[in-house]
Design brief:
Helices cover 73% and strands 1% of the residues. By secondary structure, the protein is mainly alpha-helical. It is built from 28 helices and two strands. Mean pLDDT is 81; it is low at 1-53, 207-212, 422-447 and 598-603. It has helices at 55-96, 100-181, 185-197, 199-206, 213-246, 249-256, 265-292, 304-330, 335-361, 364-376, 379-383, 392-417, 452-477, 481-510, 522-539, 544-572, 579-596, 600-603, 605-640, 646-691, 702-710, 715-727, 735-757, 764-784, 794-803, 808-819, 827-835, 842-846, and strands at 9-13, 19-23. Among the domains are: 511-678, Tetracycline Repressor, domain 2, CATH 1.10.357.50; 696-846, Methane Monooxygenase Hydroxylase, Chain G, domain 1 (Up-down Bundle). Strands 1-2 form a two-stranded antiparallel sheet. The longest helix has 82 residues, at 100-181.
Length: 850
């Protein structure tokens, strides 16, 4: 509806979707008063890729929606306020008494004035936009000029640097000759070193030399410094050699420090390395003389050569420790490896002398050949006297000490040489190449002034330097003559240690004895002592491969020689009981007496029993000893092999898994032996005792049931005989074997009673009596063996319950209850057991279906 001023209010949506008050009627008033419509610039929105809409933007959209709702609420509030103000204005105009025409005229004038102000604002905004564009163009011009100034400044700085470099070049050329003349060689070397740092600039300017006086002066400085460098190098070489010849260590060190300032690192290290080699040779000569004389202490003659090796390697290590700070400070940490390449040649030479003397004096090669021929079964071994393994004991110990000392030396070098980084820019490289302050590291600082091409080149040089250093380090540590010789000696050591262990175990088996009151024999302690001794001795060599080889040899020996010896006694069996078995054993004893010349006591069944039981106890104790040996070796590894790598630790762990497998084999053999013992010593007696059950009627009357309840003619006697036979072995077996025998006997007793029960016929009272007897037997076995025997008698107990049931339906219900838990009976067993009841209908039993 139009209001009092001719306007019609409507609610329309603006560009953002909000409702606003619109006017659709034409404006009133003179045309020149009407406001000019200023078009709004279209609002453009850039499409946002869907891939960028994530959780964070969803949150922002939600916040924007909240703000929009708040603005809508505020707009509605302001609209209400506007309506109230318009109503107030209208009421004021009405109350003023002006006519409608006057009111319209006044309002149109006000609107016209407002339109004029809006037009003025638009003109000012356009002017401001033009000014801003001018300012932007001016700013861009200033920015380009600033960039030009920065370029000019950098060139000026570079020029000033070049000027300073040229001044330094002139200063160096003027001062070097005077320093050499005054024998201030360190100062002269500093001038030369500064010259080498400026050499790149000189090279760049050398191609631009012309006839000007300034450039001629610069060329003259260049020539002077080059000539001074050669002169100073000759002086340093001459004076260094003279100091070495005279033994003047101070002068030697003085001139040794000059070489790196002249970029003569290789020259200085070569001369210093030659000096150290002569020094090492001289000190080792004294040690070799003492070794050839037999040492200084008679008590150390058995380890004479290992002691000599120790002193030689300690002298070399002492030289490295003494001069390493000098090398690091003046040549760089990476140069110690270059020096060690020179020293290692002398080290190999001196240690080879010690090893040659050891091999000759100890007849190491000859003994190794004898052992190899014997192990291979060569015909040469039959013609030679068998080597006494005890004589190898001291020799093998000395070999492990030799290798331990060598391993300690290699660890020392690895620790010292592994600390220095590989530097991609050595001092002898092209001096014009780019240098970075972080060239010794794997990454680069952000402030390194290097181009991408220079950075890539530097990284490639770094990789190459690292590979070259790793190759040199491997050559020094692993491919030196000392390392090669020690590997050869250690390989023969493993073979000789295997021979020693094998022969000692065979001797222990042949000299087996039984101490009074002991359930095991001497072979148990002897064999495991020998194996443990050999493996632990290999651990002292500090070689993981050697340790793994000896573990393999030890486990093979225990499985082939030791376990086979015990198994042969088990296979011979335990003498059976009964008159038939006794007759056979007496015949066998007589045959052994006549055939092998043994006495009756040695070949009789009692001896066979003792041998069988001793082997059985040894098997059980061996299982425990294998576990103890494995745990002990783990502790030894932690104590003696602390610095091994992860790969080497994996090797050791894998080798120790053989102990678990061997322990399982001992356990399996023990179980077989227990079964044989139970079969030979108990089956015949239990069978005879159980047969007595068939001598009684089990279709009992009430009077007979009462009599059986008072005095049971079977189960008491059966338990008595079982108890007597079992307790005889309590003092003959170790506790673990005795418990295992009880379990085996319990199972055998249950089987024999079950066998005779299935031969008999019962009525309900007979079944009830059987249930009581089975409960008595189970109670006894539980007391002796433990609750685990319940599983052995479960089937027998279920048979007794079925035989004592009231009817077939009762038996079927009981059987169904068993099916829901743990039943030891099948459907056929159910029918068979119920068929033993003489008072139950057979047809009903046969018709049972589940």
């Amino acid at each position: 509806m139009p209001d009092a001023y001719g306007f019609r209010d409507t609610l329309t949506k603006d560009d953002f979707g909000y409702f606003m008050r619109g006017q659709t009627s034409p404006l009133r008033g003179p045309k020149e008063w009407r406001p000019k419509l200023i078009s709004k610039p279209a609002v453009t929105t850039k499409s946002v890729p869907k891939a960028k809409v994530n959780d964070e933007k969803a949150k922002k959209l939600a916040e924007i929606e909240k703000e929009i709702a708040a603005v809508e609420h505020k707009l509605l509030t302001e609209r209400d306020r506007e309506d109230r103000l318009l109503n107030e204005i209208q009421s004021e105009i009405s109350s003023s008494g002006l006519s409608e025409k006057d009111r319209i005229t006044s309002f149109d004038r006000a609107v016209a004035r407002l339109a004029n102000h809006a037009e003025t604002i638009g003109i000012n905004a356009s002017s401001l936009s033009t000014n801003l564009k001018s300012i932007s163009v001016l700013a861009e011009s200033i920015s380009s000029r600033v960039a030009e100034l920065d370029t000019a400044k950098s060139r000026v700085v570079e020029c000033l640097q070049r000027v300073n470099d040229l001044r330094d070049l002139r200063t160096c050329s003027e001062g070097v000759e005077k320093a050499i003349k005054d024998e201030e060689f360190e100062e002269a070397a500093q001038y030369i070193h500064r010259f080498y740092t400026l050499e790149g600039v000189v090279f760049k300017m050398g191609s631009k030399f012309d006839s000007s006086d300034q450039n001629q002066s610069m060329k003259h400085s260049y020539d002077v410094l080059r000539k001074a460098s050669e002169t100073l190098r000759e002086i340093a070489e001459k004076n260094f050699d003279a100091a070495v010849a005279s033994g003047d260590t101070g002068s030697m060190v003085r001139f040794f420090k000059i070489f790196p300032l002249l970029n003569q690192h290789a020259n200085g290290l070569q001369r210093f390395g030659a000096y150290l080699c002569r020094k090492i040779e001289k000190s080792c000569a004294d040690h070799l003389k003492i070794m050839e004389a037999g040492g200084t202490e008679d008590a150390r003659r058995n380890v004479l050569y290992s002691d000599t090796m120790t002193t030689v390697l300690e002298d070399i290590a002492r030289e490295v420790v003494e001069y390493q700070p000098l090398i690091d400070n003046f040549y760089g940490p990476d140069k110690l490896l270059n020096l060690m390449e020179i020293i290692q040649i002398e080290c190999d030479k001196q240690t080879t002398k010690v090893l040659d003397a050891f091999i000759k004096a100890r007849q190491y090669e000859q003994k190794a050949r004898q052992v190899r021929d014997y192990l291979r079964g060569s015909s040469n071994a039959a013609n030679e006297t068998k080597l006494d393994p005890i004589a190898l004991d001291v020799l093998l110990s000395e070999v492990t000490i030799l290798h331990t000392r060598s391993e300690l030396y290699w660890r020392f070098l690895r620790r010292r040489l592994g600390e220095a980084p590989a530097r991609p820019l050595s001092e002898g490289d092209d001096s014009q190449a780019p240098r970075s302050p972080t060239f010794a590291q794997a990454d680069f600082d952000e402030d390194d002034e290097l181009t991408d091409e220079q950075r890539t080149e530097l990284q490639e040089r770094q990789k190459k330097a690292k590979a070259e250093r790793a190759k040199k380090l491997d050559a020094v540590l692993n491919r030196s003559q000392l390392g090669t010789r020690m590997q050869e000696i250690l390989g023969k050591y493993v073979m000789m240690e295997q021979y020693y262990m094998q022969e000692c175990v065979i001797r222990a088996l042949e000299s087996e004895t039984v101490e009074e009151g002991s359930l095991t024999t001497s072979v148990l302690d002897d064999v495991f002592f020998i194996v443990r001794k050999s493996i632990r001795r290999s651990i002292t060599s500090s070689s993981v491969d050697c340790v793994c080889a000896m573990i393999n040899n030890g486990m093979t020996l225990l499985e082939t020689e030791y376990l086979e010896a015990l198994n042969s006694a088990i296979r011979a069996g335990y003498p059976s009981t009964g008159w038939t078995a006794e007759a056979y054993q007496h015949a066998q004893t007589a045959y052994n007496v006549l055939q092998h010349g043994r006495t009756v006591a040695e070949a009789g069944p009692e001896t066979q029993k003792r041998v069988f039981l001793a082997a059985l106890n040894n098997l059980r104790a061996s299982q425990q000893s294998v576990t103890t040996l494995s745990n002990g070796l783990r502790d030894d590894f932690d104590h003696h092999l602390k610095q091994i790598s992860a790969t080497e630790k994996t090797k050791l762990d894998h080798s120790l898994t053989q102990f678990e497998e061997l322990a399982r084999k001992f356990e399996q053999t023990t179980a077989i032996a227990i079964g044989k013992l139970c079969h030979a010593a108990f089956r015949a007696k239990l069978k005879t005792a159980a047969e007595a059950y068939t001598a009684y009627s089990h279709e009992l009357t009430d009077d007979e049931f009462t009599t059986f309840e008072a005095i049971d003619p079977f189960i008491d006697e059966f338990i008595s005989q079982l108890d007597t036979n079992v307790h005889r072995f309590e003092e003959l077996l170790v506790p673990e074997n005795y418990e295992a025998l009880l379990e085996s006997v319990a199972a055998e007793a249950a089987n024999q009673v079950e066998r005779v029960v299935l031969k008999c016929s019962f009525n309900q009272l007979g079944g009830i009596q059987l249930d009581k007897e089975i409960r008595s037997l189970s109670s006894y076995l539980t007391t002796v063996v433990g609750w685990r025997v319940r599983e052995k008698t479960a089937k027998l107990s279920q048979i007794a319950n079925l035989l004592s049931c009231d009817s077939v339906e009762d038996g079927v219900n009981f059987f169904r209850q068993l099916q829901t838990s743990t039943s030891a009976l099948s459907l056929n067993d159910l029918k068979t057991v119920l068929a033993l009841r003489a008072d139950l209908p057979k047809d009903t039993i046969k018709a049972i279906k589940m």
